[in-house]
């Protein structure tokens, strides 16, 4: 039986994208972001595909790290900022995880913990994002606490940009200097600043470790790379379940939000918000039907979406519809849905079939 709603994942596209990362920052080690189940692409699959291409992976939750260690038993795996108690630190040591430390209290806890093996620590400085990260004073205190601690095998310094995707902002340059200045005043240790936007747009921020996320999966947050440099790894598809003629003025979907202007052909597609297609998709949100562009017409419901195919040729029940991916950037769909590609990727639900090439 054929799938009615599915997602296709391309290893070739993923490898192309990591090659772009390597070309942009040839001297830096690559810490690939696979948090959020590999941005919805499957952390295990992404890790397996990129294991020989990058220098480590990072997740954001202990549960993610525990799951990934089963399929990625060796190699660098970094646990990003989270809450850690003594048992959590024990788990990190048992799993051979690197740990991001974003507050002085956690640094102190590490020095008091009886760990079975030392751990690598990434100290995080708040340079302007104001989410996680230490003040310069606490950052220095944490570094000095941990630099000779038996529980610590190595120290890295890191930060995170607040607006590296804004090419006109001068703040990113200031944030780069905040980390470099504070780090150099303490010790000569590896540094990490650049997310995807930093990798693409701020070459002076590449430093020792870069942390690509969304660009691995095919989206350029700066929109500054030449077209098709990055390739979509995920393509979300569904099939047409029915086609009907709708008279002039007739409404389609809940609350009849969309009204026909003249006689129209409406196709019903097997994708809704229970599959991960956003309910907030506006009328006019693009889709592809057999390579031809059509538009959402009516409110997306739990299992179904409706599209206007009046202008298309040779469309029939069972034809595939691309909701985003190859030929239709997720970022473009996101703009019509008041969201971003990151959220679209991570909201695909378990009932959608997954096909890995």
Task: Describe the protein's topology.
Blueprint: E1 5-9, H1 11-24, E2 29-33, H2 35-39, H3 43-50, E3 56-59, H4 62-71, E4 77-79, H5 86-94, E5 98-101, H6 104-112, E6 119-124, H7 136-146, E7 152-158, H8 171-184, E8 191-192, H9 196-201, E9 209-210, E10 234-246, E11 251-252, E12 258-259, E13 264-269, E14 286-289, E15 292-296, E16 305-308, E17 320-324, H10 330-336, H11 341-346, E18 353-356
Parallel strand pairs: 1-18, 2-3, 2-9, 3-4, 4-5, 5-6, 6-7, 7-8
Antiparallel strand pairs: 1-10, 10-13, 10-17, 11-12, 13-16, 14-15, 14-17, 15-16
Q: In percent, how helical is the residue content?
A: 25-40%
What is the end-to-end distance? 19 Å
Tell me the number of strands: 18
Strands ordered across the widest β-sheet: 8-7-6-5-4-3-2-9
The main β sheet shows up as: 8 strands, parallel
Elements, N to C (H/E): EHEHHEHEHEHEHEHEHEEEEEEEEEHHE
């Amino acid at each position: 039986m054929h799938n009615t709603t599915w997602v296709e994942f391309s290893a070739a596209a993923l490898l192309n994208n990591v090659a772009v990362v390597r070309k942009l920052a040839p001297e830096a080690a690559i810490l690939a972001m696979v948090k959020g189940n590999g941005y919805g692409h499957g952390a295990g699959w992404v890790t397996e595909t990129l294991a020989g291409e990058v220098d480590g992976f990072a997740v954001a939750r202990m549960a993610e790290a525990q799951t990934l260690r089963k399929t990625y038993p060796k190699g660098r795996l970094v646990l990003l900022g989270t809450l850690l108690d003594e048992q959590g630190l024990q788990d990190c040591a048992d799993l051979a995880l690197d740990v991001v430390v974003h507050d002085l209290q956690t640094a102190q806890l590490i020095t008091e913990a009886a760990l079975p093996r030392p751990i690598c620590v990434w100290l995080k400085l708040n340079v302007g994002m104001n989410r996680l990260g230490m003040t310069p004073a606490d950052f220095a205190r944490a570094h000095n606490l941990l630099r000779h601690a038996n529980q610590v095998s190595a120290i890295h310094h890191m930060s995170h940009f607040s607006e590296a995707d804004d090419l006109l902002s001068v703040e990113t340059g200031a944030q780069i200097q905040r980390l470099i200045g504070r780090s150099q005043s303490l010790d000569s240790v590896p540094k990490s600043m650049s997310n995807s936007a930093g990798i693409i747009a701020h070459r002076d921020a590449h430093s020792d470790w870069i942390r690509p996320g969304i660009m691995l999966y095919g989206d350029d947050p700066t929109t500054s790379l030449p077209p098709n440099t990055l390739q979509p790894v995920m393509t979300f598809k569904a099939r047409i379940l029915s086609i009907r003629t709708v008279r002039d003025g007739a409404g389609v979907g809940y609350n009849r939000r969309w009204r026909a202007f003249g006689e129209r052909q409406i196709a019903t597609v097997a994708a809704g918000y229970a599959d991960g297609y956003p309910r907030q998709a506006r009328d006019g949100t693009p889709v592809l039907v057999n390579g031809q562009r059509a538009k959402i017409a009516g409110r997306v419901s739990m299992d179904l979406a409706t599209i206007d195919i009046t202008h298309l040729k040779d469309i029939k029940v069972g034809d595939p519809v691309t909701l985003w991916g190859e030929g239709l950037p997720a970022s473009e769909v996101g703009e019509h849905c008041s969201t971003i590609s990151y959220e679209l990727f991570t909201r695909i639900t378990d009932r959608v079939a997954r096909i890995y090439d």
